[in-house]
Amino acid sequence: MESGDLKIAWARQYMPVLASIRKRFVEERPFSGMTIGMALHVEAKTAVLVETLAAGGAEVHITGCNPLSTQDDVSMALNTREGIHSYARRGASVEEYYAAIDRVLDASPAITIDDGMDLIYRIHTERQEVLDTVIGGCEETTTGIHRLRAMERDGALKFPVIAVNDTPMKHFFDNVHGTGESSLASIMITTNVLVAGKRFVVAGYGYCGRGLAQKARSLGARVIVTEVDPRRALQAHMDGFDVMTMDQAAPLGDIFVTTTGNTSIITERHFPNLNDGAILANAGHFNVEIDVDWLESHSDSIVRRDGIDTYILGGKTIHVLAEGRLVNLATPKGMGHPIEVMDLSFAVQALSAEFVAKHGRKLAPGVHDVPSAIDEEVARLKLAALGLSIDRLTPEQEKYMASWAIGT
Question: What's the pLDDT band for 374 if we cut at 50, 70, 90?
């Protein structure tokens, strides 16, 4: 068995929820005759999702959503499966990246599955003829949802998209535990530095930042949080973290991780104030949170290692991991989120794609929430896989919760 097949087989054994869904898909074939176009991180866990969709009758065309997150052996392994076509390659140039996006769209997908909205953006700008075949899509990540909601506000979004990122099963597990554990694992394996005792700056206290801050503290780090939202800043304070501006944190931090999904978080004005040897990493989707371009053009010299670019600036060293791209996947040994976490998120993806296949033509263009029944089904399947039981409401309790007339 080749290395890509071995990776996929390893992931598959820890994804019981998708296995349960796949069993039903084989019987019901909800995607029979449909083409699904995907732009996701092409690695072993994603491959299990792709296999699940293909088992449901889909012809799947997939490429990467980040030039450095593809595992080439997994991409090649997918191309040996019937009904699956992968165009992803690690280290693709910008031109190659969008050429692969176009190859996916050349297949005229009925359903799109995005991580960052690149497929949908391309359809609405350069490939509008694909609008004739798309009945709906799914979006995986916070950054993509932000972009989609902006399109919706401008009246530019021409088909319905399910906001997979915004469901509780994604926020509570993927964003908190997945981002927290995988980002720290990649930072530690890439740098081999000790986290305990370090001043660890987390930019952004959404679900991803919250998980990262909690995991770093559990390793003994002294965590600082920067925020722009007063409610999240107050929450971070109440959770026991130091809260300050990035200007204040810059001269204090040893390790910085951005999780905002926004641009220009650590920039020209912060670099001169960083400690010698500061480590900068990004856990947001796009490589815009750390101004790497400024460092590239203004540094006195640059030393490049696997996954680490060291910039010498006025005698001071600044280390940037993974070129400022998604640190948990773009480092040479980055494995992405833990398998069990992605089992849940990709189960939501699979069931949301099925929902689009069945109901997409009836939905209005715009961003739609994942139906609560799908979210609950994934949780129940996971509980069953763990051998755990929970209580159910009695008729009396259901009546009480539904009534306004029953008082004290």
Answer: very high
Three-class HEC string of 171-225:
HHHHHHHHHHHHHHHHHHHHHCCCCCCCEEEEECCCHHHHHHHHHHHHCCCEEEE
Fold of 178-330: Rossmann fold (3.40.50)
CA-wise closest residue to 160 among 377, 376, 371, 378: 371
pLDDT digits over 4-30, tens only? 999 999 999 999 999 999 999 999 999
Task: Give buried/exposed letters for 13-22 (b at 16+ CB in 10 A, else e).
Answer: ebbbbbbbbb
For the domain spanning 3-170+337-386, the CATH number is: 3.40.50.1480
DSSP state of 266: B
Judge whether 138 is annotated as a binding position. no
211 labelled binding-site residue = yes
The beta-carbon contacts of 289-294 under 8 Å, at least 24 apart in sequence, are 289/203, 289/258, 289/260, 289/262, 289/263, 289/264, 289/265, 289/324, 290/258, 290/265, 290/266, 290/320, 290/324, 291/264, 291/266, 291/267, 292/320, 292/323, 292/324, 294/267, 294/268
User: What pTM did the predictor assign?
Assistant: 0.90
Q: Is residue 85 annotated as involved in ligand binding?
A: no
175 carries a ligand binding annotation? yes
Domain with CATH 3.40.50.720 in the chain: 178-330
Least confident of 70-74, 101-105, 172-176, 271-275: 172-176
pLDDT-derived band of residue 143, with 50, 70 and 90 as boundaries?
A: confident
Domain ranges in the chain with CATH number 3.40.50.1480: 3-170+337-386
What is the band of 285 on the pLDDT scale with cuts at 50, 70, 90?
A: confident
170 is in an annotated binding site: yes
205 has binding-site annotation: yes
66 has binding-site annotation: no
141 is in an annotated binding site: yes
pLDDT tens per residue, range 310-352: 999 999 999 999 999 999 989 988 889 999 999 999 999 999 9
